[in-house]
Amino acid sequence: MKMIWYAGLIGLLATGAVMAFLLAGDNRPPLRTVARVDLTRYAGTWYEIARYPNRFQKDCVATTATYTLRPDGRVTVVNRCRSKTLDGKPKEAKGIAWVVDTASNAKLKVRFFWPFSGDYWIIDLGKDYEYAVVGHPKRSYLWILSRTPTLDEAVYQGILKRITAQGYDLKPLIKTPQPKS
Prior knowledge:
A hairpin with a 7-residue loop joins β4 and β5. The radius of gyration is 20 Å and the shape is globular. The protein has a single domain, classed as Lipocalin (Beta Barrel). The chain is α+β, with helices and mostly antiparallel strands. The protein is built from three helices and nine strands, in the order ααββββββββαβ. Residues about 1-25 have low confidence and may be disordered.
């Protein structure tokens, strides 16, 4: 009888802990985007410098993202990478993005498979569009992008400080191998 009581108590405590966690929510301030993005300047090819691991980029190295503006105001997205090694099998995913916040152009939705779309928020951007950081409002995704396959270490460290201040954990961040330019 005592075993059943203990099991019931443990179950009740576990349920209470889960409920407390769910009700507490995320106490970080909302993720901030940059004030304004000129999509014409943003268009073109970006090299992935680092990212949070995710299932859709499993084993990807030498990752690039190319954005092309369309006449209808949307953006064609082509993500490319190599599987496992810099000379591995090429992989490609094509999608479409659209602006959801026209005041800034910094919040977009991107879709690779209908009907699913995801948030694509530009949270940091070099003044000359030489780097960009893309995040997700729940901080579950993160990409650091550059116009070149490498990024100056001082610039990279500055980005890390700013994304940490935005509530991102740096532990899951992985650097993306890129070919030497």
